[in-house]
Queue: 2 jobs
Job 1
Amino acid sequence: MPNQLSETPDRLADQESTQSATGTEKKSVFIKTYGCQMNVYDSDRMADVLAPAGYAETLDPATADLVILNTCHIREKAAEKVYSELGRLRALKEERERHGGSMTIGVAGCVAQAEGEEMVRRAPIVDLVVGPQSYHRLPDLLKRTGNGSRGIVETDFPVEDKFDALPALDKKKTIARGRTAFLTVQEGCDKFCAFCVVPYTRGAEFSRPVANVIQEAKDLVAGGVREITLLGQNVNAYHGEGSGGKDWSLGRLIYALAEIDGIDRLRYTTSHPRDMDDELIRAHREVDVLMPYLHLPVQSGSNNILTAMNRQHDAASYLRLIERIREARPDIALSSDFIVGFPGETDQDFEDTLSLVGEVGYAQAYSFKYSPRPGTPAAGETVQVEEAVKAERLARLQDKLNIDQAAFNKSCEGRTMSVLLDRRGKKDGQLVGRSPYLQSVHVDAPDAAFGHFAEVTIDKGFANSLSATLISTHRDQGANQT
Ligand code: 5AD
Ligand code: SF4
């Protein structure tokens, strides 16, 4: 998985051919995406919703008519980063205006949702602020800015379904976006972990109806996609309306998606331990295309801290769950998120986290220092852990996680695996793809193999990737990748 919350400076590497198909005046939009995969998905969908309004994507903010920052608010100084980016954009906007041009600046995503009006007060160059549940309204909002309105703020959680309002996927765009795709099936969260802003920025849990998800998956496959990652802030809480008006669980949805001809790989992220039900675990045993990788955040190994975090599980129940998942799929690679230095975390609590890590043996993981998020219960706690202590704990935890990850990668040496070669390597003649366990695998391969599955033998496992030798490629009849 690309780093869950890494910044993706731009995500447009292969999209220069995307053009609006209408007769409206041609304009360009630059979208910068921060944060998780949900935002990557939303940025693509913003581009889709803007295309009929005449906006083609560009890689160059300096020449763009519209710049959108699709922001993330999950941790540390998110809003400050956005304000400094806006400072840089201000210079670009002023330069354009000096030359008689114009540039519209929009802020979308979770910082937009959290800051709302404050954003236009602090950064008057912002023309519109649009929350994650409202971006389908972008064309209308842009019309209003075109008519001279400034500082429009649209951060309601609208009753109408955003997903219904979004256009169907455009086949050409899907082809340009490559062989792997994200598909948001669920949004929002009702869990209210004490550290987390998501329930406030993304709102209450909402699951897309099964029929919509299946249609979007079919459209992705028609556009050449072979691997789909189902997304949701709390994806395994999925309970979309299915046949007969009954709610379907994520497990049931996965069984149905696996039937679609052309889907070779399915993944899902991010899950909550409380929502790993029997059907989903059974899917890991029975559904071939469900990849043996699971991101199942535990956050802490201490029961005191798990209770204070309002995680609704303890360390023992998490470990029992892992045991059941491993029984179903013995080779599954496990991943997690950890927070160190949550308010009140003692040395012993931290040792409990290290000991849980030792018991599970993660194939990879993300770990963070606790950062108070305004408006969340934990931010008001008086016993905050000192910065130096957090830093020291994080370093110790990461050392351990890195050792485990390297060991997992090393254990893959000599194995034969299937890899979907969907990126070009830095070296000439090298292609890169993901293993079933989500590791990056580098292979010397002819360019004709690009966009196809290959059988490879793993030669070497490194800290963060694998290198392999090509055995064979499986060219399929899907969309042509260039
Ligand atoms: N401080 C530190 N890490 C956080 N996360 C979420 N909120 C915070 C916070 N306030 C981490 C959690 C979550 C991941 C997406 O980000 O580990 O699982
Ligand atoms: Fe945030 Fe995940 Fe907890 Fe929901 S389950 S509140 S998204 S950490």
Job 2
Amino acid sequence: MPTNRTFTMIKPDAVSDGFSGPIIQQIEEAGFKIIALKKIKLSPEEAGKFYEVHKERPFYQSLCDYMSSNDIIPMVLEKENAMEDFRTLIGATNPANAAEGTIRQRFAKSIEANAIHGSDSDENAAIEAAFFFSEKELKN
Ligand code: CMP
């Protein structure tokens, strides 16, 4: 995947609360182009695979249950400096520490139900995008 792309997913709390519209609007207004998008419900096993890197963390089981509790909206986004700019747009993992106006400050409920995911490196963005989208879907 080109390095001007990143991966995100709108998480179950934000989708079921009806915040996917305003979140996507904020992403587009910040200059990101949507390359691929779908709505999907993960099984607990799939959520576990996606977050395997956190397997040893105390919150892993709860995170997998939460991420498979309802639909999510994974997306691949394009913009210059995409990964870093997107992490600035979403704010800190814990919404209590997220800067004013960031997506997590506006829409997240807790450190777990934090509304949205953003890849933390170009390498992980490519791996995470390939988890949800085929090469053909990422060809745009
Ligand atoms: P995300 O950026 O998607 O990456 C890992 C996720 O684990 C994180 O967002 C939160 O949803 C969750 N998470 C991270 N830290 C904690 C924590 N201390 N307690 C519960 N969940 C957490």
